[in-house]
Amino acid sequence: MGLENKVALIRHHLQLSQSQLATLMNVSVKTVQGWEGGRYAPNGGNEKLLQLLSANKEMKPMLEKYKNDSTFAPLERDPEQLTIMGVQMPSKEVYDELVFAITNQMYEGYEPTAEDVRHFRDHFGELTPASEIIKW
Description:
Layout: H1 3-13, H2 18-25, H3 29-37, H4 44-55, H5 59-66, E1 77-78, E2 83-84, E3 87-88, H6 92-106, H7 114-122, H8 130-135
Antiparallel strand pairs: 1-2, 2-3
Helix pairs in contact: 1-3, 2-3
GO molecular function, one term: DNA binding
Organism: Schleiferilactobacillus shenzhenensis LY-73
Domain HTH cro/C1-type: 7-43
């Protein structure tokens, strides 16, 4: 079974519309449609969250409890246009890697700016010395 079918299966199992799943996971409806259409796959935290939703029905009420919690802002991104916070990425590889890296840091309280995203894009694949990161 393809991943797109698994996402739809999980959604149907939880009796959710695409819009409801998008709200629950804090992604756009276009993202859910892309997952189900096989245009791209959930990555990072979204993949894990879908696994948890499929394994445990108690995850749905837990997520619903926090769906309007604004203490954590989602990362604005468009996988079809390959943009993060309005910043165009040169390739899907760079887009996927930076979404993963930035969202993982957001769980630790990091709040990225568009300037940060441009910096990460422009220096993708480079090893930045810790002293430079602290200075920046």
